[in-house]
Amino acid sequence: MSQQPTGPPAGPPRGPMFMRDEYQNLIDEFTKDIKTELKNEVLSLLLVGSVVTQEHIAGESDCDFIIILKDKASGEKLQESMEKISKIVFKYLEDPLYSSILDVEVLGDDEIPKQGEGSEYPWTKILVAQRGKALIGDNPFAKLKVDEGQIKEAAKEMARVFLEQMEEIPTLEEVDDYDKLYLTVEAVLGCGCAFLYYNGEKEFYRSSAIILFEDKYQDKINIEPLQTSHRLRLAAKSIETKNFIPNSLAFCKEVNKILNA
């Protein structure tokens, strides 16, 4: 039942630089709205991702929330609950201060994996959720025992999906160059994170993945596309992007080759 609330697409971040306070304001206000409008339907509200540890890149990193609905908010009442959530999310997507950084995922309580049972929820995402901060209720992911085999399988699937995205980018005729660069950065970082998960790394986010690659994996794979992606996320000037897309495609293919060897 994992769903995304409806609302206008935020698109890649193009707005002004954000101070860290914009993230805290969003966290405070969004939590208050969820408590007020869905106090009987929400089991947990989690803040996940790099914002939790303040490793995010201001104005570029998302402020990621996971809303976990109680059983009684699922089933027939799911549509009503999603309409309430969508109304809240829409308010923030209309605000230029928050529209490019808000990301919300909605899960039902029955979608949270139980120890010893299989799960359709990817283990790569479970790792991120385990490090999340509970804003309402408890974090149901926190005590799950990590299954290394399932993490490796989830990492391979993650890399496959981002390779498909990367392969599609050159064919997108109606997408401008800026958006192609944005999608390329996303695919490179996605494949990079999959590589790290597969190799047993857990304590990192997209914003800090480059540090691990430079410290431990430069001799295993060409990390230049990752370095360029990181500089683009930081809005660095004088970045050569002429061969960035084909080099990034080669990087994503190499990640998939290594993970499936």
Q: Could you give a quick summary of the protein structure above?
A:
This protein has 261 residues and is an alpha+beta fold.
Could you give the distance between the termini? 33 Å
CATH fold assignment of the largest domain: Beta Polymerase, domain 2
CATH class of the largest domain: Alpha Beta
- The helix fraction, in percent, is 40-55%
Tally of distinct domains = 2
Q: What is the CATH architecture term of the largest domain?
A: 2-Layer Sandwich
Give a short account of the largest sheet: 4 strands, mixed
Number of helices: 8
Q: What portion of the residues fall into strands of 2 or more residues?
A: 5-15%
Order of helices and strands: HEEHEHEHHHHH
Give me the Rg, rounded: 19 Å
The general outline is globular
User: CATH H-level name of the largest domain... which superfamily?
Assistant: Beta Polymerase, domain 2
Structure classification: alpha+beta
Order of strands, main sheet, comes to 3-2-1-4
- Secondary structure tally: strands: 4
Calculate the mean pLDDT score and round it: 89
Low-confidence stretches: 7-20
Question: Can you characterise this structure?
Answer:
The relative contact order is 0.13. Helices cover 46% and strands 10% of the residues. The chain has helices at residues 20-37, 78-93, 123-130, 148-168, 177-198, 209-217, 224-233, 244-259, and strands at residues 42-48, 63-69, 102-108, 133-136. The chain is an alpha+beta fold and 261 residues long. The protein is globular, with a radius of gyration of 19 Å. It has 8 helices and 4 strands. Helix 5 (177-198) runs parallel beside helix 8.
